[in-house]
Amino acid sequence: MSPPRATFYAHQTLNLHARYGLSDNAKKLLRAHDHWRTGSMEQVQLGRLVRMSPDMRKSITDTITKCAEIMRKKPAEVKNCIDIIQACTEILDAADKPPDLEGFPFLKLPPELRQNVYQWYAAKIIAPTLVAYPAEPNCDCGKWTPPNTSYPPALHRVDMALGRACKQIKNEYLEFLYHKFTLYFDCSCELNKRLRSNAALRSNIRSVKVHWTGPVSDKAFARLAKCQELRHLDIVISKSTTSFETPREREMRRFFHSLKPARLADALGIDELFTIRGLNSVCVSHVNGRQSVKRTDEERANLQGLLKSKLGLLGLD
Ligand SMILES: [Zn+2]
User: Fold this and answer.
1) Which pTM does this prediction carry?
2) How far is the CA of 192 from the centre of ligand 1 (A)?
3) Which of 69, 97, 145, 189 is deepest in the core (most CB within 10 A)?
């Protein structure tokens, strides 16, 4: 853009518009052109003003014609006429510019408003717990897929169309989901893999329900202990929870040859569970499945008491 020429207001002090017989519409557009040149108006707004009616466009072509006539008759007015004609051509350029097809500038909204939109968008998700698509579909750790059957719906597909809009919106929407919903993981392997590969999940995850089973439960819970936003933890237990033991218990069994089944307190990952801090609540649930794969109610209650004590949650209920 060339440097601003004499402005509408400078011409007004010369009484130019009256002397040239410019119409009200022409003056309105020349004033708007000044605002565009000084940055207080977008070019699309200027173009929209011209397109409001055929009279607006005609006022500009009439102004060009008048200025050309004045230039021919009064050479002293050439400079001012050229200024006005240039303004008129820029106004017509703005009007003829193809309309902005980029749509609503969603990312220019303040972050709080975007969060409101995500909230509204996610309002149709009626399940309180979301189940991640398995990242470890073939792991053989005794996992038990359905998180619940008593609370409908057990599984819920989340509409992720918004997540395909662009990278920033996708990231923001995922962070919102991680923060708002309880996420269920089939096994510790699943939890470990997700936390290892997803920084946004690590930074935003707030409520986790996980079936405690698998050979990397210690690693998974150690990663969970580093999640600063984690506030609620639901540990799901089953017979397979004790299929893998802590290194200490494994070593003891080499020498003491105990035939007793391993205790929950000796399951792999228990020490790492004890390092989790900052929770508002913790609970222990039975796995959803046949009675034969479940542990006893006493074990469930004992582990819940142990975790509340070790995680500093006694007296918070
Ligand atoms: Zn697994």
Assistant:
1) 0.64
2) 9
3) 189
